Task: inverse folding
């Protein structure tokens, strides 16, 4: 049976702690007891942890041997901001799949009020990514960057930079992954799609465009499908 995994809020030598709201689920929902064992992620290393004390908003662990942990695949997902409930679903699922970083992008067809509200929403996206990381037994949660404008997004560095475009009918995503090494950047458009001049901007900046097939996918479906294809191709 897989031991439940927690990402520590505090670590010092052979001790770690989970605190505040983060500890709430462990204390009140899972009714944790002293002596119980869990996997505790302490940065890149995951170690066996035995509960030594439980207080109102703090659970302390004594750390033992390291346990095997999957290494994250170096995939960055650039996600054009779209309706929050569905965008958050994509954040949760792509975290489970193993993305290393998520960068929200304000695209031309991103609703203005969503663009304005995205800065305030970032903490909630980070909490979601932390919970999904623990649930999927990751060692570290993905970085959730602050939202950027498209011009900044197209200039982000990466070994292979791929914009997903439903208008692309030559190149399939799986065909542009062979011998890919280093960081992969995947860009998924908003509900209304990328505009022609945005796709031009990507191309001018040296991005490849790729298709996910003949059908038009919702943005969250495209994000999850593209992430799964890349991570399985890179052997994550
Ligand atoms: N512009 C489209 C429309 O409304 O007719 C839909 C855009 S789609 C909902 C949102 C984003 O998902 C697109 O910008 C693209 O990045 C991605 N996407 C959807 N279907 C795709 C496909 N078949 N191939 C590649 N990307 C796709």
Result:
């Amino acid at each position: 049976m897989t031991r439940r995994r927690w990402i520590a809020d505090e670590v010092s030598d052979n001790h770690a702690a989970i605190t505040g709201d983060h500890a709430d689920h462990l204390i009140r929902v899972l009714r944790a007891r002293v002596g119980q064992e869990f996997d505790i992620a302490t940065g890149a290393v995951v170690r066996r942890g035995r509960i030594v004390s439980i207080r109102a908003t703090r659970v302390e662990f004594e750390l033992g041997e390291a346990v095997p942990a999957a290494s994250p695949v170096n995939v960055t997902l650039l996600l054009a901001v779209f309706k929050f409930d569905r965008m958050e679903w994509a954040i949760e699922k792509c975290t489970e799949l193993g993305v290393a970083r998520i960068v929200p992008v304000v695209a031309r067809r991103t609703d203005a009020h969503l663009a304005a509200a995205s800065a305030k929403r970032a903490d909630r996206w980070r909490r979601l990514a932390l919970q999904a990381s623990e649930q999927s037994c990751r060692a570290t949660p993905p970085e959730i960057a602050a939202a950027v404008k498209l011009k900044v997004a197209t200039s982000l560095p990466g070994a292979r930079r791929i914009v997903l475009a439903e208008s692309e009918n030559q190149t399939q995503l799986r065909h542009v992954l062979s011998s890919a090494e280093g960081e992969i950047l995947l860009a998924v458009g908003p509900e209304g799609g990328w505009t022609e001049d945005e796709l031009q901007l990507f191309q001018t900046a040296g991005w490849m465009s790729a298709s996910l097939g003949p059908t038009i996918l919702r943005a969250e479906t495209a994000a999850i499908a593209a992430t799964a294809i890349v991570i399985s191709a890179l052997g994550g």
Remarks:
- Residues 164-166, 188-189, 191-194, 211-213, 215-219, 222 surround S-adenosylmethionine (CB under 6 Å).
- The two ends are 22 Å apart (CA to CA).
